[in-house]
Amino acid sequence: MTVAGSEPVTIDHDALCRELAQRAKGASRVLATARGELKNAWLVGSAEAIVVRSREILEANAVDLAAAPRLDLSATAIDRLTLTPRRIQAMAGSLREVAALADPIGEVVEASRRPNGLEVRKERVPLGVVFMIYESRPNVTVDAAALCVKSGNAAILRGGKEALATNRALHAILVDQLVSNGLPEHAVSLVPVIDREAVGRLLALPEYIDLAIPRGGESLIRRVVAEAKMPVLKHYRGNCHVYVHDPCDLEMATRIIVNSKAQRPGVCNAAETLLVHRGVADRFLPIASDALARAGVELRGDERARAVVPAMTPIVASDWDQEYLDKILAVGVVDSLDQAIEHITRHGSGHTDAIVTTDLESARRFIALVDSSAVMVNASTRFNDGGELGLGAEIGISTDKIHARGPCGLRELTTTKWIVIGTGHVRGE
Amino acid sequence: MTVAGSEPVTIDHDALCRELAQRAKGASRVLATARGELKNAWLVGSAEAIVVRSREILEANAVDLAAAPRLDLSATAIDRLTLTPRRIQAMAGSLREVAALADPIGEVVEASRRPNGLEVRKERVPLGVVFMIYESRPNVTVDAAALCVKSGNAAILRGGKEALATNRALHAILVDQLVSNGLPEHAVSLVPVIDREAVGRLLALPEYIDLAIPRGGESLIRRVVAEAKMPVLKHYRGNCHVYVHDPCDLEMATRIIVNSKAQRPGVCNAAETLLVHRGVADRFLPIASDALARAGVELRGDERARAVVPAMTPIVASDWDQEYLDKILAVGVVDSLDQAIEHITRHGSGHTDAIVTTDLESARRFIALVDSSAVMVNASTRFNDGGELGLGAEIGISTDKIHARGPCGLRELTTTKWIVIGTGHVRGE
Questions:
Q1: Residue of B nearest to A402 (CA)
Q2: Does chain A have fewer CB atoms within 10 Å around its N or its C terminus?
Q3: What is the 3-state secondary structure (H, E, C) of chain A?
């Protein structure tokens, strides 16, 4: 129980977290009715301030980077943590992009005049307070704050301890801009303690926090789901499949599996398993394995795949359920479309699954029976992304069925309110 | 641990509940792609069969009614349990109404062609399996099954033990109609054991059950929320307010408070508290208390209300938080619109709150700042209802902010799936 940057002291977590959450709730009430132009002025002002005050941010980032070896961070983690003037420009760009998006608040989702003359409408309103728990990349601090405030919500941010100094520098700038734009300073809060206890305390305050969004490894997410007393928006894993059907365009199939697997192997919408119809396995697997090898991908094949390409590592049963997040791909041969669907139903994570085929009826059956947040036909799994699907920026991808499924943008950070206007209407029997 | 209608035996709850849930999940997969005309044929067929087989239903109901004294049911509970030929006709009518509603499945919520030519659309798909836990009224068995199946979901129903024989008779008819219409018989299941343990076991199976909907007293709902490992759609209480502002039409205000309180006092959208602006209290409270007294309502007033109408019972602090569900009304006088909003924010349940006023700006402020599932202006709180708001039948009212808020109809029993069609699209950097 320590405050980073100071000597170990005892902290009254309960009081601290309650106060933090209470203040966020208070700020959210003001934010709920704030004009769109004020929220946009904050976004644009923050974009400018982040560039103007780059030196502060880079100095803070240097503190985090200096501490990184002590935290045993991997090279990848250090890369994600590292800020450069170019990355700071990119953060500013994200803020401007969010400013340019339509304000979801006040959008009328449904409206009608009832037969009795009652005017009813359902309007988008903010959720209230969103608690975001994430790891490593400091740009999440800026993106999450931007999306929450734009959608009228107060944000409580809890980044990883490896990025605490950087996150504090970014947070200070965002708060300065809140104040100078006449918005409540507690609209964006950073959890000041970095131990795990504070997260647990905050997750126990559904009276103040309306939604928790964990982003990171599966163990972090499972812990948040287990402890949260409020709803959680999340996906556990992205065990995404590409199924190459017979008939299909083999060249297209190769391009799609290489892109799905290797374009960015460390993300949730990257493919982890390739399933191939037996009718095309003999022709497709040699081409695909060459292309994947050139992209640096290790293949782990079942017996039938290895009969075609013996160089593959033999697969073990647990591979089918693994999210490698690395340049490794499980490969299996199936007898039919339905066998592929069955495999995906059993081993998939409901995130993103793709079919490559020229046959319309097979594509339709795959779409109908694969129960995932996004189903792709003749396209890379990597397209399950807020920007690619037209939502603008996203705060994460949900594999839940409740509230929001797939990429979550501004609308997914809202709820609705029924507004009913009468002229003295009362109900009869 | 007994099976009703047989001798006490030991039940393997775990195996029983798992099998029940597994079968429902299997049925839900078939139902997900069932044509709308099949689901409607089942609804209309069930409506006919319920009337044709009324005698079976009434005989089963007689068994429940005979057991009612042993269960210590109140007169109200016995009334809700009692079926008559007319009530059976009403159930059949509900089934036909659901058949006439638009099928939500396949509805395209969003669609666009992206700049790169990718075709993307977001379609409504079923949730999967819905577990409904409710009390007393046997018509809920029929209504819940109808809404779930129409929206492509399998339903697991767990009614109260006081209605078990009646629910079994209704369930048997619904299943016969599933089978004769070529739909999976496990699309509608009735939990065969009536003890509480089965509910807990089912609530621990998120791999099979996608949503739990408890309907009943607050303690039932709190128990379901505490135990459920899957999302829960619910409201705990309906502590609804009517605020009579200055200026307003006093005659209209009287009509609205009488209707909100007394038209059906036992339901969640009935008013429990009347707040009156001090500027109209002297004129309004005498008229309103006369009208409410004629409707049989007991008034519990604060000091300022009793200064105008001394006949009111003195209120105690806990009254403001109570859901009377009875002909009792808490009455208070406030100094301002904002004081009324503050009172509602503190004591309300986020269900339904109404303002009566002729002043536009006050109405707008009340709408903006009262954070409830429905906000009424110059209309009775009783209008927060699926039928009244144009949703058709409802499966319940949610005060949650996630997924669905307010009355939940067919759409609220669905989720969405992104469908992405490319021509070999891959992502660049």
A1: B403
A2: C
A3: CCCCCCCCCCCCHHHHHHHHHHHHHHHHHHHHCCCHHHHHHHHHHHHHHHHHCHHHHHHHHHHHHHHHHHHCCCHHHHHHHCCCHHHHHHHHHHHHHHHHCCCCCCCEEEEEECCCCCEEEEEEEECCEEEEEECCCCHHHHHHHHHHHHCCCEEEEECCHHHHHHHHHHHHHHHHHHHHCCCCHHHEEECCCCCHHHHHHHHCCCCCCCEEEEECCHHHHHHHHHHCCCCECCCCCCCEEEEECCCCCHHHHHHHHHHHHHCCCCCCCCEEEEEEEHHHHHHHHHHHHHHHHHCCCEEEECHHHHHHCCCCEECCHHHHHCCCCCCEEEEEEECCHHHHHHHHHHHCCCCEEEEECCCHHHHHHHHHHCCCCEEEEEECHHHCCHHHHCCCCCCEEECCCCCCCEEECCHHHEEEEEEEEEEEECCCC
